Give the backbone structure.
Amino acid sequence: HQDEDKLQEYMDELEFLAYTAGATVDRRFTQKLTQPDSKTFIGSGKAQEIKEYVKENEIGTVIFDDELSPSQLKNLERELEVKILDRTNLILDIFAQRATTSYARTQVELAQYQYLLPRLTRMWTHLERQKGGIGMRGPGETEIETDRRIIRDRISLLKDKLKTIDKQMATQRNNRGKVVRVALVGYTNVGKSTLMNALSKSEVFAENKLFATLDTTVRKVVIGNLPFLLTDTVGFIRKLPTQLVESFKSTLDEVREADLLIHVVDISHESFEDHIDSVNQILMEINAHQKPMIMIFNKIDDFSYEKKDEDDLTPSTRKNISLEEWKNTWMAKSKHPTVFISALTKENFPEMKKMIYDEKTAVDLKTIGKNL
Ligand code: GDP
């Protein structure tokens, strides 16, 4: 990690993830290494420090902000004598808790088995067998002792099941006809569901936790007499486990097949630029990065900055740029139409709606052009 601020932000996010999963964070440990240790991820001195702390304070779980290799996981568990979770496992666990439909559950279960398969040799026996703890939901310890073959069979079964549902969903999407489809994309917790609710007067579940939305919800929205279909998608996050990107194919198909993307950004968040990068990267992975897109900077009601002194000559930092100043940064050069709103107070909603309306008309014209 390059600088201290970034490091703290990453740790804040990890703590928020842990909180979403139902854990309380007791202490943070960080270490500067040019490269993670191939065997134990952290250095031996740091491992010793953590081990002592865990013992003294009866800590149940140690969470790492990266995905650990199967052998790192095993070595760390042996060395620290405590349950270890990595970022991937933590995110998978949150997804497992939040999956309500059988489709979402199937997707998460597949991702969990794919994560588990190379890690079957984990030394669970010497650990306390806590049922239902974080990282233990879904395919848990009972499967760990079973044959890899059984898990492979299960994986192909789940894949088949998903293929069938994917086909059904593709048919459903085709049957929606010619109405322009708009998909909300964005980092997790930026306000996509809140915006969806505000636009469609529906009650989509919104809460201040990560990944409140796992299944796509599609609503008909009318702006200026023009109808279109608005889809809320699963939130993206830095280092989204690849297993999830793969198994959430159908959810992401909504994005891939949309005519227009609305990229929602939480501008009150210190790392909003990183969030934009993460989202764009995932859009690239699913080959949806060249779609028409509107950038919506949300939560302006919550935007705050430290005003600079008039004659302060020190350069601007992220913290002392005002909203007006932001608008003249790279944002001014963005090829995407941009609008600043609050989904909560509905500030600038007329402007936003006009922008969606105009883009939709532009998309319509393009579609007509294609069919001529
Ligand atoms: P999603 O994960 O992107 O769907 O985000 P949600 O819609 O669930 O919102 C995440 C949190 O941000 C919730 O606590 C919302 O109440 C809050 N939120 C959403 N929009 C705004 C906004 O414009 N201003 C403020 N202050 N909070 C907002």
User: Anything to note?
Assistant: The beta strands are 61-64, 83-86, 181-186, 217-223, 226-232, 260-266, 293-298, 338-340. The longest strand covers residues 217-223.
